[in-house]
Design goal:
27 helices, alpha/beta, 760 residues, 7-stranded antiparallel beta sheet
């Protein structure tokens, strides 16, 4: 029987618990609310409300226009509960409280808060397209925050308060008469306008769960859930399991082992789901796709039928590295594109593993491409998967003999900020193409499993303990600050256990605070690896949740919960945090590079670097390009204080290929300048022209064509396509940067080091 290629999209919709649970003052870091809302629940951040306006309803409404297509959506319980608070009008965050206040009554502290935080959005897609919002943003960027505080009038503040909310209305709702009126009006917004804008936000949020329920009942959607507050279940069972993937991991001082909390999170998620959707859930998205053998019996016993994880977890489990060709397609597709059965004492579970690269292309790369080209690229990858599977069949049939399943699973909210019109043109082009495609069929996971139950078995005891992040748990444990947070959580959990009279029924406040503190998001932001301008708030929220446990038990808050776990300040050197998509214009836009790797070259490194013409180096990648940015010392220009030639040189560790010495004169005989390299990109900083070369035999350099982009204005920015380097995905590269003049060596950076890069 011939089959199409089955594809399951799973969109993960999640927000951590921003609700403050402590009573009384607790290290307030934001302006206090006005008296009119002081009795409501105090939320520290606005992201449930803003993403609730932009990212949850539109995704499924757009899908509804293409009835042939089916998808799966995960609505995390902690998100649903917070939506309910906003809909009921009992949730207020500092942003909302200020937006609903007369601007004349704002304190200086609140005005500073507005200037600092009401541009917290991707300015390319949410601010720049709106003239009045863009005007205010440019004033802050060009004139500075102090200038705004001194010169802005009441109407400037009122318009900014309005636009911070207006910009988050999804384009799918722009034909709403009220929203259309506000967008056309553009400026001169009043307090009455701002109150109506919030009412419209509530209206949109109130439609999210009913729309998902309706589409699930018609069969076009499958809605699944996650553990209650999004905890990392393997770490709840045993914080030592981080060493399974990373044997030398530094662990918390006190081992966290509270396996009995796992069924509590699962049961609460199950109950909320039944209340919202009138049926039992079938699928579970384990938080951060983190799995381990210990958690499987609890999931099966609760009644879940299937779970999902990442291809890295499958690879570790079966001891297989998923090689990909130059286009990024898996070379052994049969292993990845099928469900597996996990046998547990409580019953069987099915598990599907997502294609990491396809998921990341949507999440991190397609937003930087033209919508139709991006959609065509994704469909092209799916068609290539089908072709590879056909070619690997034993006979010469031109159809698929087996029902293969490609799983694409990713965050369904944050990625769209990088897309034009919040991804609407991309999804429309993708859905239209897939609706008409004869050999690709979109399915829900449960629909597929009912027709084609898993036949391959993975021994449950051999399932790898890891997550979607490199198949390990280092994002949530192992860093000194993360470990410190686990120790605080362990202390609070033991204290709650020492009060057996405080059960979930008799003291729900204590238990709800525990569940909130066990969430994964706090550990994500602690320590190295992830940074935001709201790290201090996440730190505070975690400690507030822990403090609420002690308060609920009528005990004093421990002193170690009254101060931050770490100092929250601008980071120095660090590796890339995520994919980046900078516009190569020489401006050095702060949002374009905020997730990039960074190396301090100038004065920050000490006296020996004070004279360096390059003060800071930024680098990062996406699936299309390698990116580099150099910040020069003030007043320095190419040819005037800075050598006029830039040389980028790459070599590839553990790979046999022709390599050649750096093609410059007067090179010192020291590492890494005496290394040999395979690719060389020379840039004339005066003319912005480039020369690309590849090493050949006998230490020769041969010219090659390059599509590299270079721009210099306030800084130097450069993009080199991976296609130039012709290196397959998942391969490590090493880079050095050399400055020269008339092909004579001048200096290199970073000193005594190479930049480590990995092709996505």
């Amino acid at each position: 029987m011939p089959h199409p290629l089955y594809v399951a999209f799973i969109w993960h919709q999640h927000q951590p618990l921003y609700k403050s649970r402590v009573k009384g003052e607790f290290l307030e870091t934001e302006p206090t609310f006005s008296a009119s809302v002081s009795s409501a629940f105090e939320y520290r951040l606005p992201w449930v409300r803003l993403h609730g306006t932009k990212d949850y309803l539109d995704l499924v409404l757009l899908l509804e226009r293409f009835p042939k297509l089916r998808q799966t959506v995960n609505l995390v319980p902690s998100l649903i509960l917070q939506l309910e608070d906003y809909i009921a009008g009992v949730a207020f965050d500092p942003y909302l409280a200020v937006a609903l206040s007369p601007v004349e009554s704002l304190t200086e502290e609140q005005r500073l808060f507005v200037i600092e935080h009401f541009f917290d959005a991707n300015h390319h897609t949410l601010i720049d397209p709106n003239p009045r919002y863009s005007e205010l943003y440019e004033q802050r960027q060009e004139e500075g925050r102090a200038w705004c505080q001194e010169n802005w009038q009441a109407q400037d503040y009122s318009d900014l308060l309005a636009w911070h909310n207006l910009a988050w209305f999804d384009p799918l709702f722009w034909d709403d008469p009220e929203i259309a009126h506000w967008l056309e009006k553009g400026r001169d917004f009043s307090l009455a306008d701002r109150k109506k804008i919030y009412a419209k936000q509530q209206e949109i949020m109130s439609r999210i769960v009913p729309q998902h329920r309706k589409m699930q009942e018609t069969g076009q959607l499958e809605v699944i859930t996650s553990p209650y507050t999004h905890p990392i279940l393997p770490l709840l069972a045993d914080s030592d399991v981080g060493r399974i993937a990373v044997p030398n991991m530094n662990l918390p001082q006190n081992r966290f082992q509270w396996e009995e909390d796992i069924p509590r999170h699962l049961q609460k998620a199950w109950d909320i789901y039944e209340e919202c959707f009138g049926c039992e859930p079938r699928g579970l998205w384990p938080s951060e796709q983190a799995v381990s053998p210990q958690i499987l019996p609890y999931i099966a016993k609760q009644g879940f039928k299937w779970i999902c994880s990442d291809e890295a977890v499958l690879g570790w489990t079966i001891d297989h590295f998923f090689h990909r060709d130059a286009s990024g397609n898996v070379s052994e597709p049969e292993l990845l594109y099928q469900p597996y059965r996990l046998e547990t004492p409580a019953g069987d579970l099915s598990i599907v593993f997502r294609d990491h690269r396809l998921s990341d292309l949507i999440g991190f790369t397609y937003g930087a491409m033209e919508a139709k080209k991006a959609a065509a690229d994704l469909v092209g990858h799916l068609e290539a998967i089908a072709r590879i599977l056909k070619h690997r069949q034993t006979d010469d049939t031109t159809t698929l003999e087996n029902p293969w399943l490609v799983t694409i699973a990713l965050d369904g909210e944050n990625c769209w900020e990088n897309y034009h019109l919040d991804g609407k043109p991309f999804l429309e082009a993708l859905y239209q193409t897939l609706s008409n495609h004869r050999e690709i069929e979109l399915v829900t996971v449960s629909e597929y499993l009912e027709k084609f139950p898993a036949t391959a078995t993975l021994p449950a005891k051999k399932l790898h303990t890891g997550s979607w992040v490199d198949g390990n748990l280092t994002t949530w444990v192992g860093d000194p600050v993360k470990n410190k947070a686990w120790d605080l959580l362990t202390d609070a959990r033991k204290f709650l256990a020492s009060h057996p009279e405080a059960t979930p029924e008799t003291n729900p406040e204590a238990w709800e605070a525990l569940y909130a503190a066990e969430g994964s998001d706090w550990f994500w932001w602690f320590g190295e690896g992830h940074y935001s301008n709201q790290d201090a708030i996440f730190d505070q929220l975690f400690r507030e949740h822990l403090s609420a446990i002690y308060q609920a038990l009528n005990a004093p808050i421990p002193d170690n919960l009254l101060k931050p776990l770490e100092i929250h300040e601008a980071k120095g050197d660090h590796r890339p945090e995520s994919f980046i998509h900078p516009v190569i214009d020489g401006i050095g836009d702060e949002q374009d590079w905020d997730k990039a790797g960074r190396i301090e070259i100038g004065g920050a490194r000490g006296t020996m670097h004070q004279s360096s013409t390059v003060q800071r180096l930024w680098y990062g990648v996406d699936h299309l390009n390698f990116y580099l940015r150099l910040d020069l010392k003030t007043g320095v220009l190419p040819g005037k204080g800075c050598p006029p030639e830039l040389n980028l040189l790459w070599f590839y560790p553990d790979r046999e290929m022709s390599n050649s010495p750096i093609p410059l004169r007067d090179l010192p005989d020291e590492a890494p300048l005496n290394y040999q390299f395979h690719h060389h990109l020379g840039v004339n900083l005066l003319t912005m022209s480039t020369q690309f070369q590849e090493a050949g035999e006998h230490h020769q350099w041969h010219p090659r064509f390059s599509r590299a982009q270079v721009a210099f204005n306030q800084c130097l920015e450069l993009a080199v396509p991976w296609a130039d380097l012709q290196i397959e995905p998942d391969y490590p590269l090493r880079l050095t940067i050399v400055l020269s003049d008339n092909e004579r060596y001048c200096s290199y950076l970073p000193e005594n080091a190479l930049i480590a890069i990995e092709v996505p």
